[in-house]
Description:
single chain; 252 residues; alpha+beta; Phosphatase 2c, domain 1; 6-stranded antiparallel β-sheet; 11 strands
Amino acid sequence: MSTAVLHYAAAAVTDRGRKRPSNEDAFGFSVEHGIYLVCDGMGGAAAGEVASSLAVDEMLRLLSSRAEVDNGASQMPQLAEDAICTTNEAIFSRSQRNYKLNGMGTTLVGLLVEERRVWVLNVGDSRCYRMRNRSLEQITHDHSLVEEQVRLGRMTRSEAIRSPLRNVITRALGTQSRVTPDILELEVEPGDLLLLCSDGLTRELTDPTIESLLGTDLPLETRCGRLVDAAKKAGGHDNITCILVSAGPDKN
């Protein structure tokens, strides 16, 4: 494997979709600080928008400040977990102070990048994928009722897709006073492409379709736009958000 320093580039697109009156998704990223986040909010009225925006803002603030302390890569999982727990407390506390926001919450999927090492952060059913050598791999596991049933062998994948309970998630930021995130470590290779997305994308498009749309040499912005457009054409029943992060020489 080459030891050359990797250069990261990113692009993002979010869209209300064709059915929802507003967009409760939120995203944010800082290539400089190696932070990439997608959140899908839930709650009545504007509560979902509040939860997802608050999550992105808090996570960016907390993780950007990590450069001020030389903790080393070995401390990154703990820093990420601490940031997620602090963000969860902020959302939960705000929902308790305002009855109109009671019960609000949000998913979170994110990347924390340190040279060749990447930590994937996940709470809920927004997803991270890795595209390597034009082959797509789902990195995260959905924290959803049907996904748990599939893993236990109590439901097939096709039954899960058709299930009326497929929207029920088992973990979210802000709905409870505590949360347990998944934090996974990856080693990135030159040419890798990482996708973060809300379920408005993955509910409409199969993994092979996503793989085919990503497997081009088009600019990241164009590929993001094509993913969102395809999801809208397939139904666009939910808000749709995606971030693409490329590792290697920036050809875009």
